[in-house]
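Our preliminary data section would be incomplete without showing what the modeling component actually yields. Below, a chain of 116 amino acids is followed by its predicted structure, encoded as tokens that our downstream tools consume directly.
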Amino acid sequence: MPRTLQGQFQSQAAVTLGTATIRVADSGTVLQLDGFTTKAGDDLRLMLSPGILAPDSTGQPGLSSSTLIELGPLSGSPQQRIDIDARMWSAMPSPVRSVVVYNYADKTTYATANLS
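Predicted structure:
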């Protein structure tokens, strides 16, 4: 059954704006970023996570799961589309609940979009 998941990026280590939309269909899944901007980084990657961005025990925002599934590098474009084949999507270990912008170079999460 087709479904759509969507969320706005919430800045963490870098000011990040934009919307992440995942459209799931039998033929495959598409992740679309619209109006996307973030701070430049040496190795920015786009990740999926079963966690959500929520306050941790100290009240600071943090991802509720350490599991990250890498989709690949980010381009500098404000509109980006990433195709995820049906087999990869169905093999996800948990439901996807967020899209994460992660900088591998300094091991920092730039932003998270909780999906609903």
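The mean pLDDT is 92. The CA atoms of residues 68 and 100 lie 8 Å apart. Preliminary results of this kind motivate Aim 1 of the renewal.
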